[in-house]
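User: Here's a structure from my thesis project, written as structure tokens. My advisor, Dr. K., wants to see whether a designed sequence matches the one we expressed. Can you design one independently, without my sequence as a hint?
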């Protein structure tokens, strides 16, 4: 054996050591024919094999005894519980974490970063996660939507049209079903409309009911008697389209007229002057 090694050494000294190519990095190295990797890649290859062997051993299917109920279920070494016990354990941990978060002392109020108003947070709320009051949040939403629309109006109109036409019959059937549900339950329909108006104008449902109670009173602008049913003089909430703040209650005709004039007093004065001069 030693004689054969000395003969190989003399052969390499005379003719040079043979060069082999690493199967990973592609570099050449000196060695024997049985080697497939250089010294650096050999270590990394061995680590990869060890990790794969450990993963297979860890995920091998075996029988595990549940630590809670004692039932034997198939699973890997990492499994401790059967599925029902694991679900109960996860729910219990979630309840514990929720209780810790709720009992954790924190600020009960915050200052709006836009108007500076100090807002009290109801029980269970999180003041540290809020930046704006409800009124400013509504105004910011309007500004952001308007900015996105003004950036590319054509794209938004096209997207809305394509969305409706994508499945025309399905959308029409959805509208018919929604209309049938509203007719089947008028009380729920009225409650949903009140919630929608309250969310739109940033007011409470009690305020919406108070607006409905103004039916039968004269409109502050034209003097016509406002109604509660859908008509030309329906009592409507008037708001500033720039800030989203509620200004008052007008009849439907006057509210629409202000919107057509973009809430611009100068344009309204010019229109009044035009009517006076032409009359």
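Assistant: Designed independently from the structure alone:
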């Amino acid at each position: 054996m030693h004689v054969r090694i000395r003969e190989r050494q003399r052969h390499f000294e005379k003719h040079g050591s043979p060069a082999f190519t690493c199967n990973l990095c592609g570099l050449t190295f000196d060695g024997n024919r049985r080697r497939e990797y250089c010294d650096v890649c050999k270590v990394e290859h061995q680590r990869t094999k060890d990790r794969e062997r450990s993963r297979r051993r860890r995920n091998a299917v075996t029988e595990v005894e549940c630590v809670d109920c004692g039932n034997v279920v198939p699973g890997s070494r990492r499994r401790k519980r059967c599925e029902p016990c694991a679900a109960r354990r996860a729910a219990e941990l979630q309840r514990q974490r929720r209780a810790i978060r709720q009992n954790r002392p924190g600020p009960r109020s915050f200052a709006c970063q836009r108007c500076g108003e100090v807002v009290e947070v109801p029980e269970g709320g999180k003041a540290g996660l809020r930046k704006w009051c409800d009124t400013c949040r509504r105004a910011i939403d309007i500004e952001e939507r308007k900015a996105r629309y003004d950036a590319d109006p054509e794209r938004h109109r096209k997207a809305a049209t394509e969305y409706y036409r994508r499945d025309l019959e399905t959308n029409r059937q959805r509208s018919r079903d929604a209309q049938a549900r509203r007719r089947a339950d008028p009380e729920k329909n009225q409650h949903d409309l009140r919630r929608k108006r309250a969310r739109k104008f940033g007011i409470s449902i009690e305020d919406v009911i108070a607006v409905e109670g103004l039916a039968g009173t004269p409109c502050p602008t034209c003097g016509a008697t406002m109604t509660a049913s859908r008509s030309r003089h329906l009592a409507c909430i008037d708001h500033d389209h720039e800030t989203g703040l509620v200004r008052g209650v007008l009849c439907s005709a006057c509210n629409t007229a202000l919107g057509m004039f973009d809430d611009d007093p100068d344009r309204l004065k010019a229109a009044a002057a035009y009517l006076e001069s032409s009359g």
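When you compare it with your expressed construct, this may help: The beta strands are 19-21, 28-30, 62-65, 72-75, 109-111, 118-120, 235-239, 246-251.
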